Amino acid sequence: MIARVHAMTCGYLTAPLEMFIEGGAGEVRVPVPCFLVDHPRGRLVFDTGMHPAAGTDPLGRIGPVAAIFRPEMGPQEDIRSRLAALGVAPRDVRFLIQSHLHFDHAGGNELLPDATLLVQRREWEAGRDPDLAAANGFDARDYDHGHALRLVDGEHDVFGDGSVVCVPTFGHTPGHQSLRVRTESGDVVLTADACYLRRNLEEMRLPPIVFDEEATRASLQRLRALRDAGARLVFGHDPDDWTMVPQAPALLTA
């Protein structure tokens, strides 16, 4: 089977470029991407962006990190509003696939309460461990809302037909994962924060802060292999790349 992918912008962050690639100079305004995947066996959302309060009360919602990553979020830019514009209600989402538990990827989880949360086991366990949660900048207000859970270990075929596959890309956080989707025009890989920018991949230059540097480099190599095999990579926060990503209701093609 094949699936259809819709890309949605759920706000922006402005931060020093050096937070995304070592040695970067100046500031950069980056998108906060979320994705709706339509499959014959159900809809899923890959990442939920920021909580609406990040736009109205950033310090109260995301704390001191708001001084580094300054959020912008309009009243219709949360994941629920983006889906509503496509005629999709929260109850219509079967799976919420989580790349990782940071505020700009899991902050909207509570807006999709009926979905089954699919996350790497090691990521979820880190989010429930006080020391690891603190070390990775996780905030349980973003992700711990009593969803039905599907905890997976490594590569996971979501529908059992090879069309939507969770790809382990550990390193940015303990259990980060990307998503490979088979579309009518070919494979699309949503890298999330395994690769912030195209430059990270092309220059093999990491951000200055990662959970595991060796694992991050291995994940970049895995993404490079997928690209070289013909997949289209959609990078986690690349503002230049994002201008070439068609926004919902248009389809994202390979």
Q: What is the strand arrangement across the widest sheet?
A: 4-1-2-3-5-6-7
| End-to-end C-alpha gap | 16 Å
Structural class of the helices, strands and pairings? Answer: alpha/beta
Q: What top-tier CATH class fits best?
A: Alpha Beta
Q: Remind me, CATH topology? A: Metallo-beta-lactamase, Chain A
Radius of gyration: 16 Å
CATH architecture: 4-Layer Sandwich
Tell me the number of helical segments per DSSP (H or I, 4 or more residues long): 10
User: Which geometry do the CA atoms define?
Assistant: globular
CATH superfamily: Ribonuclease Z/Hydroxyacylglutathione hydrolase-like
Q: Residue ranges: pLDDT <50 for 5 or more in a row?
A: none
The helix fraction, in percent, is 25-40%
The main sheet comes to: 7 strands, mixed
What's the average pLDDT?
Answer: 97
In total, how many beta strands?
12
Q: Give the number of domains.
A: 1
Percent strand equals 25-35%
Element string (H = helix, E = strand): EEEHHEHEHEHHHEEEEEHHEH
Q: Which labels suit this protein?
A:
single chain; 254 residues; alpha/beta; Metallo-beta-lactamase, Chain A; seven-stranded mixed beta sheet; five-stranded mixed beta sheet; 10 helices; 25% helix; 29% strand; globular
What does it look like?
This protein has 254 residues and is α/β, with parallel strands linked by helices. The chain has a single domain, classed as 4-Layer Sandwich (Metallo-beta-lactamase, Chain A), CATH 3.60.15. The mean pLDDT is 97. Strand 10 (177-183) and strand 11 form a beta hairpin. It has ten helices and twelve strands. The protein has helices spanning 53-56, 58-62, 79-84, 103-106, 121-128, 130-136, 140-143, 198-203, 213-228, 239-242; strands spanning 4-16, 27-39, 42-46, 70-72, 93-97, 116-120, 148-152, 156-157, 164-168, 177-183, 186-192, 232-235. 25% of the residues lie in helices and 29% in strands. It has a seven-stranded mixed β-sheet. A five-stranded mixed β-sheet has the order 8-9-10-11-12, covered by helices on one side. The two termini are 16 Å apart.
